[in-house]
Amino acid sequence: MPLVAKIRFSSPLPQLDKEFDYLVPNRLAAVLDFGFLVQVPFGLGGKEKTGVLCGLTDVSSEREKLLSITSVSSITSVLSREQLALCHSVAARQAGTTGELLSTAIPKRYTRIEKEFRSSDSFSLELSDKPATSTLIEHLQTHPRTYFMPELLGNLSGSGWPSEFVLAALHEFSAGRSSLVVLPDFAELARFEEALFSLGLQGISYRHASSDTGSQRHLNHLYASTKIGINYGLRSASFAPAKDLGLILLWDDGDESHIEQSAPYWHSREVLLQRAELEKAKFVIASHAPSTEVVRLIEIDHLVPLKASGPKPQSTVTELNDRLDATSFALISNAIKSGNSVLVQIATAGWASSLLCVSCREIRVCSVCSSSIWIDPSGLFRCRSCKTNTALPPCSCGKTATRPTVLGSSAIAQQLERSFPEATVLHSNGENRLTNLAGGSLLVVSTPGAEPRVEGGYSVVLIADAARMVGAPRLRALEQSLGKWANAVSLARPNATVIFVGLRDSLEAKMLEFDFYGAVKDDFTDRVELALPPQTRIASVTSTNTEDHQNLIMELASLLESGKTRELKVDNPNTLALDYSYSYGLELAELLSATTLKLTKTSKAKKPGERVYRINMDDSKVI
DNA sequence: AGCACGCCGACT
DNA sequence: GTCGGCGTGCTC
Fold first, then answer.
1. Which of A264, A421, A463, A551 is the most buried (most CB within 10 A)?
2. What is the pLDDT of residues A524-538, one digit of tens each?
3. Which amino acid residue lies closest to nucleotide C9, measuring CA to C1'?
4. What CATH number did the domain enclosing A604 receive?
5. pLDDT band for position A158 (50/70/90)?
6. Which 9-48 positions of A have CB less than 7 A from strand B?
7. Which nucleotides of C are covered by protein (CB under 7 A)?
8. pLDDT at A377
């Protein structure tokens, strides 16, 4: 009976997104196994192509003319059955192809690395003591799917999230199972590594990060496939191999870096939720402030929350003004004078750029709806709320000249820089990011997400643009602001004061208590009433041109009338946005894939390497 | 993606 | 009568 291999290719092409059958020659039958890379003749030219072995069967194929595998090109499996199942399931959910996800799951091959791997010694870690336990570890015994809020100010006492993660992963290791830790960006990766290395766990840890050299990634991939260890990395590590995976830890799922920017636009949270199910692993999402998706998962009893207690700073809320009130000013003054550090978080242009009058420094507002005005990417004055573009009327003080509040030039930050010449002023932002500071009389002005840590923690944290961040005209402005504030607050020392500028009503009340969970839950409740994500999901299909877009609308006419989805109004004329329920997700993804595949074949605008339609099953930016 | 097949217009 | 344009479709 001939042995037949099922082969897949790492290709985004939907036409190639299936298994191809090849005969296994006798000389290779003993070597080959699931997940091996092989060379096969493919296509009319019979050229060699690299494929992955995704199944072996000795059932005689119904096809007559099977070609044979030419050669094997890996020394061990580079893809587990679980990883393949994950790629399938993510592709189905995201309206993508299994093939394009295989290229995320399988690194480039280096022959030199295979030699090194083959001759490497087996590293064994001597665990001198029984590993330490923690509240999180104990909680996981009874609640395998958990949302964890670590101590808000735990960084200084050593009970911050990095050490919580390392302890949990080490506990899993000592029970003979691997773990997988996924972090939003390199700053968090560095903090996790710091905690990992301080316990001397380098030898059992495998990093899966695009910043590493290709050969390093390949080596770690081989170790992770064959050894129990602690695997970690940024979002693409969600697909990394992990032998006998027992625990998945995800930090700050609300951070936008967890969303893959190319098709099929998956999110670490959703990939890992599926992975935890497939591999029967324990699953922890942790953050200082939950995402609304986390609140939903708790509400439907998929996650059980665990909130660590601990000291909190003082909280005050001041009036919205471009000058600080006297009390806040005095707090900052005292901190600087006594050699302590102050953090000022200011919004970036992308968060809430607006225009100030050069004379009276009032924020210029729209004459129609009184929302703030900004300069849009095409250079026009445009209202942020009603989107009308108007000639800018004179300010109430009579002057017409304006200046934009841009990165690093928040009025409050400028005022502080002038008022405290004795302070060392430092700026940190996405492009020019500070990470760790020694402390002293520092005035650190930072954009959200770029805040450096300071030795001993900040004495004052000023959330200068709180009101403006929340007011940004985006669905997720509130929850994302809360996430950014919580992360900034977590850098404070226990007796510090946090000042939120311009908050009112229930949000003011919540922030006086640092009740980030309660504030996001309120946001979620509002969205349930409005039937907006994450109560529903929103997909978008963007066409390269109007004609293809019109064809799509015609093709989907019966779907749009069926009531299974609702079409949403969006700015881009070539984008179709659809609102749908979680239970309809798989079916809709399948329908959109099939429809766009069909239309792509006859599209006139088809260019090599370019997609005529881009499907995003969870477009977080479309509204 | 490649690559070949195939069915219409311009050329020795 | 043949050469070649790239639209359509397949690759185990």
1. A463
2. 999 999 999 999 999
3. A601
4. 3.30.70.370
5. confident
6. 13, 15-16, 43-45, 47
7. 8-12
8. 43
